[in-house]
Amino acid sequence: MQFHIDASSPVPLYAQLERTIRAAIAAGHLREGDRLPTVRHLAVELRINANTVARVYAELERAGILTTQRGVGTSVRDPAAIAKPARERERSLRTLADRLLADAAAIGISLPEVIRHLQERSKETR
Amino acid sequence: MQFHIDASSPVPLYAQLERTIRAAIAAGHLREGDRLPTVRHLAVELRINANTVARVYAELERAGILTTQRGVGTSVRDPAAIAKPARERERSLRTLADRLLADAAAIGISLPEVIRHLQERSKETR
Amino acid sequence: MQFHIDASSPVPLYAQLERTIRAAIAAGHLREGDRLPTVRHLAVELRINANTVARVYAELERAGILTTQRGVGTSVRDPAAIAKPARERERSLRTLADRLLADAAAIGISLPEVIRHLQERSKETR
Amino acid sequence: MQFHIDASSPVPLYAQLERTIRAAIAAGHLREGDRLPTVRHLAVELRINANTVARVYAELERAGILTTQRGVGTSVRDPAAIAKPARERERSLRTLADRLLADAAAIGISLPEVIRHLQERSKETR
DNA sequence: GTGGTCTAGACCACG
DNA sequence: GTGGTCTAGACCACA
Fold first, then answer.
1. DSSP class of residue C83?
2. Rounded to whole angstroms, how far apart are CA atoms B113 and B104?
3. Which residue in A25, B23, C10, C106 is deepest, having the highest Cβ count within 10 Å?
4. Do A92 and A84 touch, CB atoms closer than 8 A?
5. CA A45, A50, A53: angle at the middle one, nearest 5?
6. Hey, are the CB atoms on B108 and A19 less than 8 Å from each other?
7. DSSP-assigned states of every residue in C3-14
8. What is the pLDDT of residues D64-79, one digit of tens each?
């Protein structure tokens, strides 16, 4: 499993990491019972502070997504814990889209243009 | 001209304000030569500190978008300063879309679903 | 006599005006007894506020350089009032040069380069 | 690294600080990767408010000259970002020289005299 | 009245 | 500990 982090991004490192782990699980790249890298390994690999990794693991454990066993390591506990109820899911998507559209409008890019761009990317991925 | 700000958003007030002003100009609601509200008026209206407004005006002036005349006020200088060259525009859009897709993936929402959502909103607006 | 003002300059209008009037007198373009434009004429010509012109005339009158006669107008009173004692003159020059060199250094331009540039301009003027 | 500030100067503190930092980088006293003092340290040292220092660092970061790592500190990112293209460099120098000559003329100091003064200073420095 | 600068001090995000 | 954001309020420069 490869996670990646952009140190020059304004998005906090911990948020980037949490996001990519959640995405990996949501996409099925990591399944129930799969082991994650140790805190130290991942910290070295991503060249970030081990505290930051530990904080993310702890956060995801609190959310019921990961589980940690002392002396063993951290693994995926419940991928379903990511799935939000449809209603909240919809609300989150709306919020994300709001932000995108606001930022796009600020540089003069309209909704149709955004859609066109995403459709292009959709084709590329196929 | 109406700008709006969400004090409960994690996005800094100054960033929200800058974004809405840029959007108003990009959309043609504010044109070259149009006056903006005074720093103090806008601060009162948005219930934020005058320094925060002043900071945004100063930033937009540095970007060549607004101009200030001492003791007079602030007005739109060059709407074109917002328009980026096509190449950079495309890059910005890609960056914004990347962010959206990363966040969406983290809660298990896929690209097609994002597109569907945006198309729905596009219809609503018509 | 032509004075000029740059409204987009960060230098205050009154300071620009005072400077050009002083320079015209120092250079001998305006001599003792010469009349200056009326406050209103100059204001219209330069497209600035009449108060600003009046303020400059008043300032120069206080300095003993101009004199105003009610119903008549403003004229040059004493060109010599501009000439500073050699010591202060030297100090002023040093201060001005300090500022120039500091600003030049900030964009990576060194003293010899500044001198070369001024010598070029000296030739052009001849 | 020593920066200095003159609180009695009419030039805004933040502008003085920005200028000296730029000069230090342009002169090679600070190189790529070098750490700058922390915001609070520098504020104490210069006896100015920490916000003022932070403002300067932020401005230089926006200019691409410095870079900030969250919770770590501020360092030089790209000294080349200061170097302007020759054309603009020339224009800047001309603007600075214009200002100097205008101010000098206003106290009756001519171009040759300015050049003589700068040559004197050039000798002193050797 | 306008905007510009600076301060003191709070609270937050981050590592 | 680092920097980032925001506030309240002072004082100045300018028209």
1. P
2. 9
3. A25
4. yes
5. 80
6. no
7. ----TTSSS-HH
8. 999 998 788 999 999 9
Q: How many CB atoms lie within 10 A of CB B60?
A: 24
HEC profile of chain A:
CCCCCCCCCCCCHHHHHHHHHHHHHHCCCCCCCCECCCHHHHHHHHCCCHHHHHHHHHHHHHCCCEEEECCCEEEECCHHHCCCCHHHHHHHHHHHHHHHHHHHHHCCCCHHHHHHHHHHHHHHHC
CB spacing of B115 vs A113 below 8 angstroms: no
- CA-nearest residue of chain D to A7? D69
Nearest CA distance, D24 vs chain C (angstrom): 8
This prediction's pTM = 0.88
Q: Which residues sit opposite A66 in a β-bridge?
A: A76
pLDDT in tens, B54-71: 999 999 999 999 999 888
Q: Which of A11, A84, A114 sits opposite B118 (nearest CB)?
A: A114
State both tokens at C73.
């107008």
Q: Residue C86 — pLDDT band, cuts 50, 70, 90? A: confident
The one-character DSSP state at B46 is: H
Q: Rounded distance, CA A15 to CA A25, Å?
A: 15
Please give the structure tokens belonging to residue B17. Answer: 């304000």
Q: Rounded distance, CA D44 to CA A107, Å? A: 40
Strand F positions with any atom < 7 Å from protein CB? 1-9, 13-15
Residues in D whose CB is inside 8 Å of some CB of C read 11, 18-20, 22-23, 26-27, 82-84, 89, 92-94, 96-97, 99-100, 102-109, 111-115, 117-119, 121-122, 125
Q: Kindly state the tokens that stand for D60.
A: 């230089």
> Cβ distance D56 to D20 under 8 Å?
no
Top residue of B62, B66, B70, B77 to mutate, by most chain C CBs within 10 Å, is: B70
Shortest CA distance from B70: residue in chain C: C12
DSSP string, D63-105: TTSEEEETTTEEEE--GGGTSPPHHHHHHHHHHHHHHHHHHHH
For B115-126, write each residue's pLDDT tens digit: 999 999 999 877
Using a 10 angstrom Cβ sphere, with 0-12 exposed, 13-18 middle and 19 or more buried, the burial of residue A81 is middle
Helices (H), chain B: 13-26, 39-46, 50-62, 86-106, 111-125
Q: For residue B81, what is the DSSP state?
A: G
How far the first Cα of chain B sits from its last, in Å, is 22
Chain C residues in contact with B69 (beta carbon < 8 A): 7
Q: Of chain B residues 65-124, which have a beta carbon within 7 Å of strand F?
A: 69-72
Our CA-based measurement puts residue C53 at a distance from the nearest CA of chain D, in whole angstroms, of: 17
